[in-house]
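Feature request disguised as a bug: please show the residue count (444) next to Right handed beta helix domain-containing protein in the output. Example input:
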Amino acid sequence: MKKQFVLIVAVITMLNTGFSQSISSNFKNEGRDWYISKNTGSGQMGTKERPAKDLGNIIHHLKPNDRIHIAEGIYLSKGGRGADEINVPVKIYGGYDITFSVRDPWDAHKSIFTGTNEYMKLTDPRIYIRTDQQRESNGQKSKGGEIVVDGIIIDNGPRNRYHQNKNLAIRRKASPKSQQNPSPESGGIVIVGSAYTNISVLNCVVMNTAPTEGAISVRVFQGGKGLIQNNFCINNTGYGIHARTGYVGSDAAKIPVFTIKNNTSLFTWKHDAIASYGGDALAFDNNLIATVENNALGYGHMGGIYNKGAKLKLINNLFTGNGKYDYKEINDKMAVTDILDEAMHLDPMSDGNQGLLIKIPVAERWAEIYANRKEISRAAVDAAVTVPNTGANQLRSIFGLNQQGSGVATDAEIFLPLISIDEALPAGKFPWNGMGCNIPKQAK
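Example output, currently without the count:
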């Protein structure tokens, strides 16, 4: 019997329920199924019998509501450019075997989107879907439809430039002399929808990206919904997950609504070694509403959640090891124990959030590098909230490493050190007491 994800059925049901806004003519296309296989593909027919070799090779053929099925393999995009931009609403499903009959995106059949660090290659988001500029024949902007990205692994490690090629510290400037690109200052999955467009990011892994904003960034416009569920973000700068709004009005019925559930976001770095911004596991724009439930938000260099004014309901989230705060609301910094008492933009039904020390099963090689880094930080001389579940030796303990002293130094020889997929994935396969992501399940 064909295997399917339990989550997909639930997601489609949720998105279709109550979605009554009309879809503009441009987005009413029925859509077709495309098939991509690095290992067996050739040409641009994109059928199951004759799949294309890379998503980048058939982007110019895509129409609204097309469904794209991607088999296991390592994908570099067309010409190895390392970035795919799509300008119509589509649904992308990764993690198939080469027969497109079984999906197992975090284990047996990984669809890995990456690139290379070659001079003058693209530094855009690895998957960038933007539909907000599409227009009808009368000039009005297109609206409606649905965008889905499900079961893709984004690894920007091979796209980054590392200091002295040691894979220990990224560099944000190009090196024409050595023919190296800068590390891309962009997210792994960046989606900007149209009005009344529903957007889902499910069962994805994003790692080694160096954006200013989100490793996963979803911008929803008026009347739309965002669903970000069961994703794993590890070792990124900026924000692990960034929920964004494109609506500037005050009509309560049009304010974007997000559900952010069962995600794990770990080791989110500041933008650079001396920056005072970035470094949050999860961030929210103003003028949106979100339910945030059962997420694990840990080891943000700044914090767990940065709320710029969104109306949030926080239910059963885990905060661990965040540097300056667990929750920041505009400029107010709080530990998890103070959120319900002090937050101004929180739904009063919020409950069950907790701070815990947890074991994170990443590879010992990377854990040693991370735990022994020396930080440069303006915050070293600033007064800041001290959350109760952080500290150098606590950090070592969550990796199972021996305890020792550490300090702040004026170098940046370790900053966003490369972590491999095999080293990172064990930390995303199982939740902690139901909080965090889980390896995507299949139903027989």
